[in-house]
Amino acid sequence: MVKIITVDGPSGAGKGAVSRILAKQLGFHYLDSGALYRLLGLAVIRRGIEIGPNSDLIDLAKNMDVRFDTLPNGHNQVLLEGEDVTHELRTEQTGALASKVAENSAVRAALLLRQQQFAKTPGLVADGRDMGTKVFSEAQLKIFLTASIEERAKRRYKQLLEQGENVSLRALEEQVRSRDERDMNRKASPLAIATDAVEIDTSDLSIQEAVDRLQNLAILRGIA
């Protein structure tokens, strides 16, 4: 059986950074499930497809030409139809579209198998919003990372400033709050804590401190 660690939680809780480092330290594969939804949102923009229950959207979800590469410096590179869209995936517009397409149950079903195919030896660290509750419900270790809305907005604010974007912290707080509500109340695989998940609040933790906690849990479970 492939060793699987799932890391779920709301936007800005640190799932991506923590999961990437943890996977590298353990020598596991890494799945950024949110990137698939962001890629779909980006592809929707580029093709002018309506975000609704239509066959074009489902076909796109099933057949998107995407690739995840690891560069020599250890960073991830995401390709959509052969084009590097790594930075474009992190814009607020793409993130908002990702959350909207994720509400579509047919879209989630189309992407489910693609996500599960990432589970290969020696192991997988998968981050997202329904990794432990839906995609990898058999995972040996399930984590739910959270943080206060204010802290998550500050983290996103810092990221966007570093990217040269002019943003409002107060507006970001409202966006985080709205996205939480949308993710938790959608009909298809809402954001929820798996009954057997370990909840960790990262509000006052550095990325490495959070990684260390997860790695210690993995050792205790006999995964690492």
Structure at a glance:
The chain is 48% helix and 17% strand.
Architecture blueprint of SSEs:
Layout: E1 3-8, H1 15-26, E2 29-32, H2 33-47, H3 55-63, E3 66-70, E4 76-80, E5 83-84, H4 92-101, H5 105-116, E6 123-128, H6 131-135, E7 141-146, H7 149-162, H8 169-185, E8 198-201, H9 207-220
Parallel strand pairs: 1-6, 1-7, 2-6, 7-8
Antiparallel strand pairs: 3-4, 4-5
Query: In DSSP terms, counting alpha (H) and pi (I) runs of 4 or more, how many helices?
Result: 9
Order of helices and strands: EHEHHEEEHHEHEHHEH
The CATH homologous superfamily name equals P-loop containing nucleotide triphosphate hydrolases
Helix fraction, binned, reads 40-55%
| Integer count of domains | 1
> Structural class given helices, strands, pairing?
alpha/beta
CATH class value: Alpha Beta
Strand order of the largest sheet: 2-6-1-7-8
Sheet-strand content, in percent, reads 15-25%
How many strands, which pairing sense, and closed or not: the largest β-sheet?
5 strands, parallel
Query: How far apart are the termini?
Result: 14 Å
Overall pLDDT, averaged?
A: 90
The CATH architecture name reads 3-Layer(aba) Sandwich
CATH structural fold name: Rossmann fold
- Would you report the number of β strands? 8
What Rg do the Cα atoms give?
17 Å
